TrEMBL record:
<dbReference type="Pfam" id="PF00723">
    <property type="entry name" value="Glyco_hydro_15"/>
</dbReference>
<dbReference type="InterPro" id="IPR045582">
    <property type="entry name" value="Trehalase-like_N"/>
</dbReference>
<dbReference type="InterPro" id="IPR008928">
    <property type="entry name" value="6-hairpin_glycosidase_sf"/>
</dbReference>
<feature type="domain" description="Trehalase-like N-terminal">
    <location>
        <begin position="11"/>
        <end position="88"/>
    </location>
</feature>
<dbReference type="Pfam" id="PF19291">
    <property type="entry name" value="TREH_N"/>
</dbReference>
<dbReference type="GO" id="GO:0016787">
    <property type="term" value="F:hydrolase activity"/>
</dbReference>
<keyword id="KW-0378">Hydrolase</keyword>
<feature type="domain" description="GH15-like">
    <location>
        <begin position="246"/>
        <end position="632"/>
    </location>
</feature>
<dbReference type="InterPro" id="IPR011613">
    <property type="entry name" value="GH15-like"/>
</dbReference>
<dbReference type="InterPro" id="IPR012341">
    <property type="entry name" value="6hp_glycosidase-like_sf"/>
</dbReference>
<protein>
    <submittedName>
        <fullName>Glycoside hydrolase family 15 protein</fullName>
    </submittedName>
</protein>
């Protein structure tokens, strides 16, 4: 492959990056050997290398000094990256990994959780395999999103970088030159020569780690390869479509799972934009309740029951409070934090000038009623494994069901976290129906019997064009089952739009929303219901770009300036819905169109530029990989059903 990866000064293509993970944090490595994004010690910590968002925000690169070609791949089913550089004079291999630590307890042989003993070390091994290669080395950490330029001093076997809240120890076998711009060197590597580099970062008051001996680096690298491969081997093989991409998606979900708590971040990056130069730039380094049911279905397909339970337990523990007058918080920090206040990092120029760069996410304050359904649906999928739910979790699930019954009639910001006026979104009502449907069917998951609830009040249907009297506003409906049935009646009456032959985005208006493709997936209507079929057809006609990829909704309804790309998971939802309506061949076609959005390593971002086909949005995006898995399951099941 020719090196046509773009200029890092102007924003390298998102698809050019590879993911490294030790299940506490993540790094993004470019195809020319530069770590351009890295947050320590957690996924949501300030970046110490941030060139992804600004050319001056830090990186660590090891690359040939002159022109070269490259090829890259992961070592087996791992997140250990091998990049092969070929120049006119020779060939060099670069191996990159975040060390996982041991897989088994020394002495006892007890198996450890993947990454639980991670030494918080970045391993980089460079070997010349033919001829000779001139190498440029540049180590430029910039803590706190590029604010700090450390001072470098020498250590036995390495160097120390000091400045700001973190210190870095770099193990290096070569002499480095120090300057205001970092630690650099140019060396010539000949066939058979191997160089091993390690960085570890610690807090300003922590004891410094020692430098590493070569045999320790090799052992840590082998531990990391074996750890990922053992995790993968412990899970069933995939016998459905596109096995390589599905298996890689399983691995991505594990890589984005914060080891100490089981939280899964939506993505390891912030502020990669939904449109180049636009302002739709959000921080996705947090765990959303919305992901719970989709993620648990995907983990179940991977045979990852333990991982699914850990994620569910994290969500229920982090969210374990309920105030009837306030909707449930929709997202949390990876340690369970509630306050995710949003701020702008004004000194960063943004990827290709896309500003502002944001840290935190103001959506934590939004009312989004769909989360009730996603949470209880997650419990429903895990029901066979949750017989011993503790009293706190059972009490909380009871409160969640009550909240769905109490609040379903209110307008909200919807699944897409619209920053405009709240509406009566169809998908939000649908997921409140899911919450109550599952609660009624699995009352053993909750603490008390269903209670009477005031379903809606006179002021709750205030969207323009709706008459509150249509909703029988003073009616009291006893119990969860009756509330569920009333939601169904409202959706079938007010969300169905005969004039467009589809369920609309909201009770008011005739715009479309790709989220309603999930009507058959959650069991609200069967796939062969004529209204489902015509809704799928309407979305396939009105919400697609020239490549056949699906947009979330029609432009101009979200309260934000500018446009966005096609949303990858929505295209997988279309494939899933087509499979459930019996159109399996077409489902396969759409599925493969969406899967083609992955880069050469099988990683997918949030969106795709409708004009250029370039990846957009935070990367890699858990939602996209979840969509791929669940669509693959639907297609496999539909094909089996047809024999």
């Amino acid at each position: 492959m020719d090196l046509t990866t773009g200029n890092p000064e102007t924003g390298r293509p998102i698809a050019d990056y590879a993911l490294l993970s030790d299940r506490r944090c993540a790094a993004l490595v470019s195809s020319d050997g530069s770590i351009d994004w890295f947050c320590r010690p957690r996924f949501d910590s300030p970046a110490v290398y941030g060139r992804l968002l600004d050319p001056e925000a830090g990186h660590w690169s090891i690359r040939p000094a002159g022109p070269f070609h490259h090829e890259r791949s992961y070592v087996g089913e791992t997140f250990v990256l091998r990049t092969v550089f070929t120049t006119d004079t020779g060939t060099a291999h670069l191996i990159d990994a975040l060390a996982l630590g041991p897989s088994f307890e020394a002495g006892t042989g007890v198996r450890l959780r993947l990454g639980s003993r991670a030494p918080r070390a970045t391993l980089r091994v460079l070997e010349c395999t033919a001829g000779e290669v001139e190498i440029d080395f540049a180590f430029r950490p910039r803590p706190e999103f590029g604010l700090v330029r450390p001072i470098f001093t020498t250590l036995p076997g390495g160097i120390l970088a000091t400045g700001g809240p973190v210190r870095f120890v770099l193990t290096t076998p070569i002499r480095l030159d120090f300057g205001d711009d970092g630690a650099t060197a140019r060396i010539t590597l000949r066939a058979g020569e191997k160089l091993r580099f390690v960085t570890q970062s610690v807090g300003i008051a922590d004891e410094l780690p020692g430098t590493w001996k070569p045999e320790a680096v090799d052992a840590a690298l082998e531990e990391t390869i074996q750890g990922w491969q053992r995790w993968s081997d412990a899970h069933p093989t995939w016998d459905g479509p596109l096995p390589h991409l599905v298996r890689r998606s399983f691995l991505v979900l594990e890589a984005l799972r914060y080891q100490p708590t089981g939280a899964i971040v939506a993505a390891p990056t912030t502020s990669l934009p939904e449109a180049v130069g636009g302002s739709r730039n959000w921080d996705y380094r947090y765990a959303w309740i919305r992901d719970a049911s989709f993620t648990i279905q995907a983990l179940a397909a991977a045979g990852s029951t333990e991982e699914a339970i850990e994620f569910f337990e994290f969500i229920t523990r982090a969210a374990a409070q309920y105030h009837p007058e306030n909707p449930l918080q929709i997202m949390f920090g990876v340690g369970g934090e509630h306050d995710l206040s949003e701020r702008e990092i004004t000194h960063l120029s943004g990827w290709r000038g896309s500003r502002p760069v944001r840290v935190g996410n103001a959506a934590w304050l939004q009312p989004q009623l769909d989360v009730y359904g996603e949470l209880i649906d997650a419990a429903w999928h895990l029901a066979p494994h949750l017989r011993r739910l503790d009293a706190t979790a059972r009490r909380f699930l009871t409160d969640v069901a009550d909240a769905a019954a109490d609040q379903w009639g209110r307008p909200d910001q919807g699944i897409w976290e619209v920053r405009g006026d709240p509406r009566h979104y169809t998908y939000s009502k649908l997921m409140c129906w899911v919450a109550l449907d599952r609660a009624v069917k699995h009352v053993e998951l909750v603490e008390v019997e269903p209670r009477d609830a005031l379903i809606f009040g006179r002021d709750q249907f205030s969207s323009e064009g709706l008459d509150p009297e249509d909703f029988n506003p003073l009616k009291l409906t006893p119990g969860w089952a009756a509330a569920r049935d009333r939601i169904r009646e409202a959706i079938e009456t007010y969300a169905w739009k005969p004039e467009i032959g589809a369920f609309g985005a909201a009770f008011d208006g005739d715009d479309l929303d790709a989220a309603v493709l999930l009507l058959p997936a959650v069991g609200f209507l069967p796939g062969d219901d004529p209204r489902v079929v015509s809704t799928v057809d309407a979305i396939a006609e009105r919400l697609v770009d020239p490549r056949g990829l699906v947009l979330r909704y029609e432009h101009g309804i979200d309260g934000l300036d500018g446009e966005e790309g096609a949303f990858v998971i929505c295209t997988f939802w279309l494939a899933q819905a087509l499979a459930m309506t019996g159109r399996v061949e077409r489902a396969r076609e759409v599925f493969e169109e969406a899967a083609a959005c992955a880069n050469d390593l099988g990683l997918m971002s949030e969106e795709v530029d409708t004009g250029t086909g370039e990846l957009l949005g935070n990367f890699p995006q858990a939602f996209s990989h979840i969509g791929l898995i669940n669509a693959a399951v639907a297609i496999r099941d539909a094909e089996r059903a047809r024999g």
